[in-house]
């Protein structure tokens, strides 16, 4: 749910652009500090460095982020600045109801938690591609992602929406009704861990096609373990905020949430119960396909573990 209302330049994994034309600027001073330190045309510098990798003679000449002669960036990360992000939004299909919700949410505390339009469109597409009928969302906030997914569900589809905030649900209910998806929503107010346990106890194991996690970061691994039970083999678990404003790549950032997300990312990268990919949309989205065989151990081949510099 963190759009930052916008142009998180997570394609670079570094820079944050916080003032695109449609957005409210987040209030977190730490995010603004990070953005300021990265703003000086970093994308162009990275492209120049990456293009020189092939000609580098010294294996110790490391390009920022990991590029080197034996580990080159053959395609440099894109510099998603305000103008390019505005172009992306202009070419993203966003239902009018979701735009209205985005505008209202921009006036609320925590508005950066809302997923951006391009992520909402992507999640709706995933629902269609999966042929999903049953979805569970851990962390609903004001309802943008739930609406984006519910609109893509068939008429008999259901989405279990979990959140701890009644004020957030009050906004979500208004827009669920406007979007015509109220009948598809099973609202669960309270601790999501309890809700997930209740669903498992009620025989929900293996009954969900898609799960989306966008809640408290220190609870990510606990949610993930429970969702591995609830999501069917071949189903999808999507986890938001895995690039965390770029903080996960900065070893100096050791706050509890950043450390929790780093740990989650490392554990998922080694977890053989899922096939996974992390994509730089929004604030980073990890997609995990649940393996067909539930007996595969969580810890896989050590050779498959990712770069340990940020662990």
Structure overview:
Helix content is 35%, strand content 14%. The protein starts with 28 loop residues before the first helix and ends in a 21-residue tail after the last strand. By secondary structure, the chain is an alpha/beta fold. It is built from ten helices and seven strands. It has a seven-stranded mixed β-sheet with strand order 3-2-1-4-5-7-6, with helices on both faces. It has helices spanning 29-38, 42-51, 82-90, 96-105, 117-130, 144-150, 166-179, 192-201, 220-230, 256-270; strands at 134-138, 158-163, 185-189, 208-213, 231-240, 274-279, 285-290.
Secondary structure layout plus pairing:
Blueprint: H1 29-38, H2 42-51, H3 82-90, H4 96-105, H5 117-130, E1 134-138, H6 144-150, E2 158-163, H7 166-179, E3 185-189, H8 192-201, E4 208-213, H9 220-230, E5 231-240, H10 256-270, E6 274-279, E7 285-290
Parallel strand pairs: 1-2, 1-4, 2-3, 4-5
Antiparallel strand pairs: 5-7, 6-7
């Amino acid at each position: 749910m963190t759009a930052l209302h916008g142009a998180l330049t997570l394609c670079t994994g570094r820079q944050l652009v916080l003032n695109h034309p449609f957005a409210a600027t987040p209030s977190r001073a730490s995010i603004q500090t990070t953005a300021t330190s990265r703003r000086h045309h970093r994308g162009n510098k990275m492209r120049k460095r990456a293009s020189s990798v092939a000609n580098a003679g010294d294996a110790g000449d490391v390009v920022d982020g990991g590029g080197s002669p034996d580990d080159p960036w053959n395609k440099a990360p894109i510099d998603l600045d305000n103008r390019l992000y505005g172009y992306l939004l202009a070419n993203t299909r966003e239902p009018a109801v979701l735009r209205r919700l985005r505008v209202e949410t921009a006036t609320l505390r925590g508005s950066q938690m809302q997923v951006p339009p391009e992520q909402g469109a992507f999640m709706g597409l995933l629902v269609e591609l999966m042929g999903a009928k049953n979805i569970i969302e851990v962390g609903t906030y004001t309802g943008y992602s739930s609406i984006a997914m519910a609109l893509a569900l068939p008429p008999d589809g259901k989405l279990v929406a979990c959140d701890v905030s009644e004020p957030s649900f009050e906004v979500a209910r208004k827009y669920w009704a406007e979007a015509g998806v109220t009948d598809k929503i099973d609202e669960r107010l309270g601790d999501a861990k309890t809700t997930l346990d209740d669903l498992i106890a009620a025989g929900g194991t293996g009954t969900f096609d898609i799960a989306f996690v966008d809640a408290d970061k220190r609870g990510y691994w606990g949610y993930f373990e429970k969702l591995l039970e609830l999501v069917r083999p071949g189903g999808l678990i999507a986890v938001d905020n895995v690039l965390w404003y770029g903080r996960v790549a900065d070893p100096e950032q050791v706050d509890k949430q950043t450390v929790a997300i780093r740990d989650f990312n490392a554990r998922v990268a080694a977890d053989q119960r899922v096939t996974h990919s992390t994509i730089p949309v929004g604030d980073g989205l990890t997609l995990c396909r649940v393996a067909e065989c539930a007996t595969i151990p969580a810890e896989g081949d050590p050779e498959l573990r990712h770069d340990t510099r940020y662990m």
